[in-house]
Design brief:
Mean pLDDT: 91
Oligomer: single chain
Structural class: alpha/beta
Radius of gyration: 19 Å
CATH class of the largest domain: Alpha Beta
CATH topology of the largest domain: Methyltransferase, Cobalt-precorrin-4 Transmethylase, Domain 2
Shape: globular
Order of helices and strands: EHEHEHEHEHEHEHEEHEH
Number of domains: 2
Helix content: 25-40%
Strand content: 15-25%
């Protein structure tokens, strides 16, 4: 017995950033296995679906990936349309590979639907391009949280030499070690850096500084939403943007 599963990107949070295809699939879903951080307004787009929270939260008790894989196969074999709804884009730190391999091993057809990733949403809200001619010719997506917990192993020297802009996902708990590694590898401590919590949502918060002082700026802050770090010379104008926003609010 075969079934069809859709691995769908829910985007960074704002329902208006959901793709048209994702919205259509959600409207016709029979079962939705969703991450914990998916906005309730997006979940409401599947009024007739069975909702199953299989979220994985850094620092909190979460569903094991193997259990998610097994559950995904189980519900797929019921014949209902299954949407596996992942925050951001499934192919960027979304553990899509494990789920695709499990589905393939079970002989279940699936399709992947791209979503807007947090780095793109954060850059849009800040009005700062992640790439910039003559300044940032490359963009690097890296994770600040390894599978075993803590900061993962990266070739920090190679990253520092590469330059460009670094979008660090899940780096809120390891920002101190991350900054130290970058600086030890040769990155200038005054390299511009910004942290964005809950990119694209009404509760978005922004901290601006440098790779050297960002850990201090975040120390003691209560960060409930997903935190993205953007590091590189392309972020140099972020303080002016923040000032302009403050002036507009005043």
């Amino acid at each position: 017995m075969t079934a069809r599963v859709f691995l769908v990107g829910a985007g960074p949070g704002d329902p208006e950033l959901l793709t048209v295809k994702a919205a259509r699939l959600l409207a016709g879903a029979g079962v939705v296995l969703h991450d914990s951080l998916v906005d309730p307004r997006i979940l409401a787009m599947s009024p007739h679906a069975e909702m199953i929270d299989v979220g994985k939260r850094c620092g909190k008790r979460s569903t094991a990936q193997a259990a998610i894989n097994e559950l995904l196969i189980e519900v797929a074999l019921t014949g209902r349309r299954v949407v596996r709804l992942k925050g951001g884009d499934p192919m960027i730190f979304g553990r899509a590979t494990e789920e695709m391999e499990a589905l393939e091993a079970a002989g279940i057809e699936y399709e992947v639907v791209a979503g807007v990733t947090a780095a793109a949403a954060a850059a849009a809200s800040l009005k700062l391009s992640l790439t910039k001619r003559k300044i940032a010719r490359s963009l690097h997506f890296i994770t600040g949280h390894g599978a075993e917990g803590g900061l993962p192993v990266h070739d920090w020297a190679a990253l520092a030499r590469a330059g460009g802009t670094f979008a660090v996902y899940m780096g809120g708990r390891t920002v101190g070690g991350l900054a130290a590694h970058f600086i030890e590898a040769g990155m200038a401590p005054e390299t511009p850096a910004v942290a964005v919590e809950s990119a694209s949502l009404a509760g978005q918060r922004v901290w601006t500084g440098t790779v050297g002082n960002l850990p201090r700026l975040l120390d003691g802050e209560e960060v409930a939403g997903p935190l993205l770090l953007l590091i590189g010379q392309a972020m140099a104008d972020v303080e002016a943007v923040a000032a302009a926003k403050a002036e507009a609010r005043g």
